[in-house]
Amino acid sequence: MLDLFDEPLPETGEDSVAVIEDLALRGEQGLNQMAHPRFFGWVLGGSAPVGVAADWLVSAWGQNAAFHGSSPTGAAIEEIAGRWLLDLLDLPRDAAVGFVTGGTVGNFTALAAARSAVLRRQGWDADADGLFGAPPVEVFIGKDAHTSVFAALGYLGMGRKRVHRVRTDQEGRMIAGDLARQMEDATGPSIVVAQAGQINTGAFDPFGDIVSIARAAGAWVHVDGAFGLWARAHRDYCSLTEGVETADSWSVDGHKWLQTPFDSGYAIVRDTAALQAAMKIDASYLPPQGQGERIPCFLVPELSRRARGIPTWAMIKSLGRMGVEALVARHCGIAQRIAERLAAADGVRVLNDVVLNQIIVSFGCLTVAAGDGKSATEAVITALRDKGEIFVSGGYWHGEWVMRISVICDATMPGDADVVASLILTAWAEVREAAIGQGR
Question: Which ranges in the chain are annotated with CATH 3.40.640.10?
Fold first, then answer.
C-alpha cells in the first residue's frame, strides 16, 4: 500500500472529485473488512450506518466542540448522550461523562482524575505541582488486565511496571483475597484497577469485594469496561457486573457494542470536580463558562476536538434501550452456539467459560511444520485467513497460543453461528489430516 500511494509532493492541486475518486480506488485495496458479519479478530463493533451518517454531519458541520460557546449543538448533544449512557449502563446519574477516542484514552482520562484525587487527599496538588516530590501512588491491578491500562499508567507517569499485580483465576478474574493481602499495608495514595470483560475470556472481576477492600484503604477504584460494561444494558447479563456501580470511575467504548464509528469512547467519573481539575484548560481568549453550561474540554484531554458525542446520540436514538439489549443478547447467544459446536469436536478445546461474547480455542498438539514451532492452533488460524471467509486472530492465554473469537458486529446474525463453527472445524480437519499425512 505504501508503494501504491508513494508519489512526489504535488506542485499544483487537482480536481477535488478526482482526488476523492483516486483515494477510494487506491485506498480500498488495503482495507480490512472490519464491519463484516464474520470478522471476529478483535473486539471492534460494526460502524452502523446511522452512526456513520451522524459522523459525516459532524465533519460537514466543522465544529470545534470544545466549549458550549463554540458549539452549542455539540455541547448540548453530548450532555444528553451522556445522560442516556448513564441510564443504559445504570451508573450514577450525576457522574461526569467525557467523550474520548476509545478505551485507552478513556482509561487515561479517568486515571488522571484518580491520580489527582488520591494525591489531593494527601495534601498534594499534582495538577499544579506535578509528581516530583509527590507521595508515591500505589496501583493495584489484576495480572490479566488489558494492555491499554498499562499504557495509560505509563502516560500518566505512574509507570507500566511499577504496579502491584494481583493474582487472577483461570478466567482472568482478580482474586479478591490476594488484593486484600497486598493492600494490608497500603497507607498512602492508592488506586485499584478492576476489569469488566477480560479481553480473552470476557470474565468479570468481583467488584463488590474489590470496592469493599479498596474503600477500607481509602483507594480509588477504576473499572476498565471497554466492552464488558455493556452487559449492564441487558437484564440477563447485568448480574455479571454486580457491584461495579460502586466504583469511582469507568472506561467504556462506543465503537464496540454501541456500533458507533471510530473513534468513540467514554470516560465516566463519579467526582466531576476531580475530573475537571485534571482536565481543565483555560485562557482569556476562550469562551467563558455560563451558568449550567457543559464545557466538553474540561472533561477530556483535548481543546481542539470534534463533536464526538453526536454519533453516540444517533446510535442510542436509533436503537433505543431495547435495541441495545437485543444486540447484547444476540451476540452472546451466537458466541455460546459457536462454543458449543467447537467444544463437541475431537481435538478442540474451548478454554474459557463463555459468559459473554468472547471465545478462546486451542486445537490439538500437532507440530504443523517441522522446526518452526507453530502450533496446530496457528495453522488453523492461517488456513481460515487464507480462505478469507472469516477473520479470526491469535494470542497467548496463560502461556498457550489460542484462537480468539470476538462476536460484536451488528451485522452478525444467529445464522452465522453454525456457518462459522463449520468453517473452523473444516479448517481444523484439513490441518489435522495434513499433519497425519506427514507422519506427525
Answer: 49-317
**Residue 397 CA to chain centroid, in angstroms?**
18
- Provide the sign of the torsion angle of the four alpha carbons 225, 230, 233, 235, taken in this order: negative
Position 368 confidence tier, pLDDT thresholds 50, 70, 90:
very low
Residue 367 in this model has a pLDDT that exceeds 70: no
Class of domain 49-317: alpha beta
Bridge partners of 99, per DSSP, are 266
**Residue with C-alpha cell 486484600?**
180
- Render pLDDT for 26-48 as a digit per residue (tens, 0 to 9): 999 988 887 787 777 788 888 88
* Residues 402, 117: Cα–Cα separation, whole Å: 40
Q: Which of 40-44, 114-118, 306-310, 312-316 has the lowest mean pLDDT?
A: 40-44
Question: For residues 390-421, b (16+ Cβ closer than 10 Å) or e, as one string?
Answer: bbbebeebeeebbbbbbbbbbebeeebbeebb
Q: Looking at domain 321-437, which CATH architecture does it have?
A: Alpha-Beta Complex (3.90)
Q: How far is CA 62 from CA 59, 79, 152, in A?
A: 5, 19, 30
